[in-house]
Amino acid sequence: MTLNHFLDLALGRLDWHALPFWEMIEQPTLSHIVNGSIVTAAASLVVLGALATVVLITRFGKWRVLWSDWLTSVDHKRIGIMFIVVALVMLARAIIEAVFMRAQQAVGLDGGFLSAEHFGEFFTTHGTIMVFFMAMPFLTGVINYVMPLQIGARDLSFPVMNSVSLGLTAAGAALIMVSLVLTPFSTGGWSGYPPFTEASFNPGAGVDYWIWAVTLSSLGSTMTGINFAVTIYKERAPGMHLFRMPLFCWTALCTSILMIFAMPPLTVATAMLALDRYLDFHFFTQDLGGDMMNYVNLFWLFGHPEVYILILPAFGVFSEVFSTFSGKRLYGYKGLVIATMCIAVLSFTVWLHHFFTMGQSPSINAAFGIATMLIGVPTGVKIYDWMLTMYRGRVRLTIPMVYALGFLILFVLGGMTGILLANPSIDYQVHNTLFLVAHFHNMLVPGLLFGMLAGYQMWFPKAFGFRLETRWGYRAAYAWIAGFILAFFPLYALGLLGMPRRAVGFIEPAYLPWTIIAGIGALVVLFALFSLVMQFWLSLRHRHENRVPVGDPWDGRSLEWATPAPVPEYNFPVTPEVSSRDAFMREKDLGQAYQRPAEYRDITMPANSALGPILTVTGFLMAFGLVWYLWWLVLLAGVASVGALIARSFVRRTTKVISAEEVRETHEAWLRQVDETQAVKRDKEQDTSNRGRPAAPVSGAVQ
Amino acid sequence: MTATPSRHPGLNLGRAHQEAHDACEVLVFGFWVFMMSDLIIFGLLFANYVTQLDALAGGPGPGELFEMKSAFLETLLLLTSSFTYGLASYCLKYRHGRGWLTAWLGVTLLLGLAFIGFELHDFHKMAGEGGVPSRSGFLSAFFALVPLHGLHVASACLWMVVLMVQMCVHGLDTGVKTGLVRLGLLWHFLDIVWVGIFSLVYLGGLA
Amino acid sequence: MSDSQRQSDTIDENERRHELGSYLWGYGLALALTLVPFALVAWSGWPRVTLLWAIGGFALVQVVVHFRFFLHISLARQKREDLHLILFSTLILVLMVGGTLWIIFNLYGRMVPELLP
């Protein structure tokens, strides 16, 4: 075997052209230099970021802590936090990409500075990241952290599988990050429609990056869904009937059911596309009986329920926010539960509205259009319930509440444009224009991101034991709202003017003022991101003044607030008994909060496992090998994955015991701290005097 | 006094295996949820197959490629294996030795492997007659659906071998018992999917 | 041996016989429901459409038999979550598969009629 053969085998189709600066060295035209520099800068950022992380961890000697307290941990709280870290990193990248796209369109009259190819990569990674590697991990992380606490459980039903879900999501995210260093990424959009993404039009590695990143994420999400659903069905504390669960748990349940049934169509679609590309199958090709309409159908069988996977948890967060910060019971609890379930089921009946213009008969379009409009009904119920929760409550305008109010108004506007789009004849006019882009950002930015950010602000003190700083927090919240309005409302106008989505440039001068306003909006959003970073940094520096060790800084209503902040690994020293909705608020009302348990017992907790991190590495390597045709790597990593799974099945010591004595000491110390802590009134909750113990409200307040 | 309360549908291990019986409640429910998610995958591949029935692109179709005899044999093998797995579950619950259990599992494994063998032989023969997935949309759809089922059966066989080795290492402990209960569900489930395949793909194609 | 012990043994004995019977019945019925459609396709010479309906009917019954006798799913067990799960999955399956066939065959009818069955 000659050296060349060996290299071919070892490196697959990897060559110099994969390097982000190669093209501008080979053909140093202005356009290549501009685009090449941007990619090279991004790639350097990835490489330097990774190096800096490694150096810092080594310098502070944290490898052991990282491994045994975090990576191999199967504690739902730590896994939740790691999911959110992945989400925030990816959020930063995707926002920066969005700013580049807005900047391109702001100067896009007759050109702009990005090449069409590069712009295509921008909108593809932006969409893919925002949906699969920002939104999904963010909501998975929040549910992971909060839901078991709210139902009074010690962990999820399958803690190791939870760690594997995190691992697969992280592997997918890593694959997308690596695609910046070893280019290109797909230009087929986040939905990756064939035949454009078939081998005949797109033979390069880009689409394969997209396929495997999305596949890893969808496998992880399916497992997450199974885990959440089983946990909610089987691990609730005694007395926690389904209809006593906080609404957030209901939305978590519906989201997980959607994950269980809606991720398979995506897996099928991406797997078929992969078979087409790798093994010359003909599912979606243009010749030999392939039919790309099948792909569109499959993709949106997943895609529409996905919208509700994203939005429902945010609805849950907002339900908690509205009732907590209005100091009132949630209005219309049962109505909200039923509305959530209706949305979950209806979401499986509307997928065709994503392709009204594909050519099916008007009667089919009408049927799906009507089903789409029907979803507006339960959603409307929810909006009114939230407003009535605030009605006659004592509303405190905290940061989560700012996000919630922004959501309420903006989401209704977005919903209205959705009702417009649900009408097939209107859809024919504006489909594939920026009107659509404006619409779904109008649903997902307020309806998902604001919800997650509100949840982050509300539950951060629970997770880390100190409140977040408020000044930059408010700036971030208002900048998000203002930036969103500026960036996306002009897109409605542009869409009505006929500007197509995903356009790298345009020749119509009438578009220009609107694209410039949208560009300014993107900068405001960038400032919001910066404010979040500042807020986090300042909070970290002033953490000692803002500690809330008692754990109930907002006068919360559900069980998670009955625990110390940060929460001990076992969550509750003894499993709580629940006798009503808003379990913790009721205890506080009756003066029965912070009770000393009659006796302490040993607590059995799941032991750490290395399976998650191992599958992260093997999953990533397998996907990477598939992208670059490194078959030896695929084989090795595949065998290693199966081997790890089998080895794990032989492990019998899967639990560890926390002794009653240790639980007693921790808990008694905390109870002493509760006694010593001065209770604060609700209106002082953003003050440093707030140590996490709320005073009972003035008598006569609506509870 | 009533019979042992069941913790989940399917064969409940019962009083004699209290620890494993209790552990099964969550594990088996979780496994059911997984299978239902898997069912959606098969359902969509069935639907895709039906839409591609006439996408022959001039290539060979069901009439030329399918053979009733081997489909019939495969069906009998898998059905019998489902039955013998049932007997294995039965021995797990009521016979407290490992002899009969191992014997029935062994028979099931052999039947499963024979099924895979016949199936591979079928595919090989089809390929010889030009029935390869790159030939047409119809054949692509066929080769997405039927081999995926075969892959499931192969994975289930691997799982069975792993469980048998575990039985040698750890004895018939809770881990092995709960594993056998879940594998049983998967085995019966795969037979149900095969009912769909032989009816729709083979009999439907040859009718 | 105490009374209650003896009583529980009889119950176990009944359960045992019942479960063995269940597998035997299941095997017998499934075998019959397999043989008939194969025989029909091989020898009956019925028109294709009738055959297809018959095959579909036998398959559906056989699926129910498997669920009932091998997987022990029935309508009267204490734990209902699993039954609800199966019914809900069936609903979603019907929506997805039915919707797919409806949409795709409608598209064929309007664009590529040669792909219609």
From TrEMBL, chain B:
Q: Where is the Heme-copper oxidase subunit III family profile domain?
A: 27-206
Primary localisation category: membrane
Q: Which residues cross the membrane?
A: 26-51, 71-92, 99-118, 138-165, 185-205
Top-level taxon of origin: Bacteria
One short Pfam family name for this protein? COX3
Keywords of the record: Cell membrane, Membrane, Transmembrane, Transmembrane helix
Family matches, as SUPFAM superfamilies: Cytochrome c oxidase subunit III-like (SSF81452)
Q: Where in the cell is it found?
A: Cell membrane
What membrane topology does this protein have? Multi-pass membrane protein
The similarity comment for this entry is:
Belongs to the cytochrome c oxidase subunit 3 family.
Record's protein name: Cytochrome c oxidase subunit 3
From TrEMBL, chain C:
- Which superkingdom, per the lineage? Bacteria
**Which UniProt keywords are present, listed alphabetically?**
Cell membrane, Electron transport, Membrane, Oxidoreductase, Transmembrane, Transmembrane helix, Transport
Which regions span the lipid bilayer?
24-45, 51-71, 83-105
Q: Which InterPro entries match?
A: Cyt_c_oxidase_su4_prok (IPR005171), Cyt_o_ubiqinol_oxidase_su4 (IPR014210), Cytochrome_c_oxidase_bac_sub4 (IPR050968)
How does this chain sit within the bilayer? Multi-pass membrane protein
Location (main, coarse): membrane
Q: One matching Pfam family, short form? A: COX4_pro
Q: Where in the cell is it found?
A: Cell membrane
> Subunit structure, per the record?
Heterooctamer of two A chains, two B chains, two C chains and two D chains.
Function description: Cytochrome bo(3) ubiquinol terminal oxidase is the component of the aerobic respiratory chain of E.coli that predominates when cells are grown at high aeration. Has proton pump activity across the membrane in addition to electron transfer, pumping 2 protons/electron.
Spell out the NCBIfam families in the cross-references: CyoD
Return the similarity comment: Belongs to the cytochrome c oxidase bacterial subunit 4 family.
Name under which the protein is recorded: Cytochrome bo(3) ubiquinol oxidase subunit 4
Which gene is the coding source of this polypeptide chain?
cyoD
